[in-house]
Specification:
The complex is a heterodimer of chains A (197) and B (373).
Chain A lengths: L5 H9 L5 E5 L5 H10 L2 E6 L2 H9 L3 E4 L14 E7 L8 H11 E9 L4 H10 L23 H10 L2 E10 L2 E3 L4 H4 L2 E8 L1
Parallel strand pairs in A: 1-2, 1-4, 2-3, 4-5
Antiparallel strand pairs in A: 5-8, 6-7, 6-8
Chain B lengths: L10 E5 L3 E2 L5 E2 L2 E8 L9 E5 L37 E5 L14 E2 L4 E2 L9 H14 L7 E5 L1 H12 L6 E5 L7 H16 L15 H15 L2 H7 L19 H14 L4 H12 L11 H4 L6 E7 L7 H13 L3 E7 L13 H15 L2
Parallel strand pairs in B: 5-6, 5-9, 9-10, 10-11, 11-12
Antiparallel strand pairs in B: 1-4, 2-3, 4-6, 7-8
Classes of the chains: A alpha/beta (197), B alpha/beta (373).
């Protein structure tokens, strides 16, 4: 079995056994399959890319082709233990509305995203005068799917404004965990566990 | 099971019924023509019901007795295919109202010893499904591993999941819809009017005389256009002329597309009954799965444990992706385990009958996941 990306590995580790989960932007279903196999999770997925959906369904997963920006409205409140949005937030048209749905549909929500305030990004911008192209964000300005870049501090203040509670947070540089101190400057990726009060 | 005459090719049986029809009529007795492939396993957990489309029949994977052509879904059903007689007990039943052996307007009404013709009761998709349930009872099959269908077959699969939740573990719905749109009804009405405008139709009492073949052929021609896509027609025919170098300045089939449609119409009348066409198109037009649930489609699936797999095709304008998506939204609202994907194909609605490796890959994975649970 393919090793999970480090942010997914954190989510897979933290999810309770037998949970009902909705993976928004599930790709070809790697995390869902891991949660099904290791946690006996009842996993459902939403994914935009038809080829990924086909692969996930052929894997025996329940995945629906759809768009996080338009297709979350029908899921009832609290219908999942966890709603998961991994590396997808920055690609949505309205991340704020997507997050509202996420904490509405899931009793808890996992959100992971690349931190645009990490020092390499800052250097590229400040001294290079160019949009950063790095290992974690390899796209160029004109072909990037990442249309709403966000930093860890942006995200925290967004949560505070909306009374969304942080129930867990993890930071990563490459595959290595990193503590909370200076995370906004040093971490490449962040994973948050959220709950709406 | 080898000696069990209820199973095998080209089966026929009559059951006392009755079938409670949506119209209020109790219909009995009920004739069934059906086929089975493969063997029912000891715990009777491997039965798959294949539901056919408007002009389809029970000959899913064996040669058609009238046309001699191969079964209509041999790409999906057969050895090594996603629905495999080596693994599954496959059942396909000619729908109520049709003309290949199950009760329909051309059948003899025992009360009059003459064909029902227009005396046949108006039926619905749900009525077809209730009749199928009767036959499955007769076969001793309580639970279906899956019910699978494209187009009108998908409507039956949806109705099965809504009417008999506990009897259906998985449902595969391809290129289908949960309701007939105004446009769908409009095209069907053109077809019905073509049949009824044929003087040979004679209010349906044409059995024993010449059938309204001209009307039925026109109905088929109009419908056939809706099964294809504009891009597909353009690629296949363009404006090319049929066996001639110049336009005839007359009303022969100058264009290849005209010749093709005429052929489709003419070959159809050899194998299909005009009155059946009226009754089945009516059943499809009456189809709206949300209607008995205050118009809320999700209520049709409330509490369901059935797994659903829906597939649509991007060039299908008869039952476009938006209709499948509407079903998926309802399933999500009902908390059902649903999978859905829109596949790309230039072939329009008919794509589900043609070579579609991605469709096969999805159906195969979906069914196997249900079997391993």
């Amino acid at each position: 079995m393919t090793a999970l990306r480090s942010d997914l590995a954190i989510i897979a580790r933290e999810v309770r056994a037998n949970a009902r989960i909705l993976d928004v932007g599930c790709g070809d279903g790697l995390l869902m399959a891991a949660l099904r196999d290791s946690k006996d999770a009842d996993a459902r997925g939403l994914e935009l890319d038809a080829r990924d959906v086909a692969t996930a369904v052929a894997r025996g997963l329940s995945v629906v082709q759809g768009d996080a920006d338009t297709d979350l409205a029908d899921y009832p409140d609290g219908s999942f233990d966890y709603a998961i949005l991994s590396q997808t937030l920055q690609t949505t048209k309205r991340p704020d509305l997507v997050l509202d749905h996420l904490v509405r549909i899931g009793r808890q929500a996992f959100v992971s995203f690349p931190n645009f305030a990490q020092w390499r990004m800052r250097l590229a911008h400040m001294f290079g005068g160019r949009m950063p192209v790095t290992e974690q964000l390899p796209h160029r300005w004109y072909d990037t799917p990442n249309i709403h870049h966000v930093t860890i501090d942006d995200f925290r203040s967004f949560l505070a404004e909306r009374d969304i509670r942080i129930e867990g947070q993890w930071f990563l540089s490459g595959d290595k965990p990193r503590n909370e101190r200076l995370a906004n400057l040093l971490a490449e990726h962040a994973v948050f566990l959220l709950r709406r009060d | 099971m080898q000696n069990d005459t209820r199973f095998g090719l080209d089966r026929k049986t009559q059951l006392l019924g009755p079938v409670q029809l949506d119209s209020g009529v109790e219909f009995a007795p009920v004739d069934f023509a059906y086929e089975t492939y493969g063997t029912l396993n000891a715990d009777k957990s491997n039965a798959i019901l294949i539901c056919h489309a408007l002009t389809g029949d029970q000959y899913v994977a064996s040669n058609h007795p009238v046309t001699g052509k191969a079964g209509w879904w041999t790409r999906m059903v057969g050895p090594g295919k996603p629905i495999d007689p080596a693994r599954h007990c496959i059942i396909s039943i000619n729908v109520l109202g049709s003309c290949m052996g199950s009760s329909g307007p051309a059948s003899i009404d025992p009360a009059t010893a003459a064909p029902y013709a227009m005396g046949f009761p108006v039926i619905t998709i749900a009525d077809m499904v209730r009749a199928q349930a009767l036959l499955l009872n007769h076969l001793g099959i309580e639970t279906l591993e899956a019910v699978v269908g494209g187009s009108m077959g998908g409507m039956q699969a949806l109705s099965w999941a809504a009417l008999y939740q506990e009897r259906v573990r998985s449902a595969v719905i391809i290129a289908s819809t949960a309701r007939h749109s105004a446009q769908n009804i409009a095209f069907h009405e053109v077809g019905r009017q073509a049949i009824m405008a044929d003087p040979r139709w004679n209010n349906g009492a044409y059995y024993g005389h010449e059938a309204p073949a001209a009307g039925l052929a026109v109905a088929r021609m109009a419908a056939h256009i809706t099964y294809l896509s504009e891009a597909g027609l353009t690629e296949k025919f363009g404006r090319r002329l049929q066996n001639r170098d110049a336009k005839s300045f007359g009303f022969d089939a100058d264009f290849q597309v005209e010749s093709y449609l005429r052929h489709q119409g003419l070959s159809f009348v050899d194998r299909f009954d005009a009155n059946s066409y009226l009754y089945i198109t009516r059943a499809m037009d009456y189809f709206d799965l949300a209607e008995p649930h205050d118009g809320v489609l999700a209520k049709a699936f409330a509490g369901t444990k059935t797994r659903f797999c829906l597939i649509s095709f991007d060039s299908d304008w008869l039952y476009p992706t938006a209709e499948s998506r509407r079903i998926v939204h309802a399933l999500n609202a009902a908390g059902a385990a649903a999978s859905f994907v829109e596949l790309s194909s230039p072939f329009g609605h008919d794509a589900f009958l043609l070579e579609a490796p991605e469709m096969n890959r999805i159906v195969d994975g979906f069914l196997r996941a249900g079997e391993s649970r």
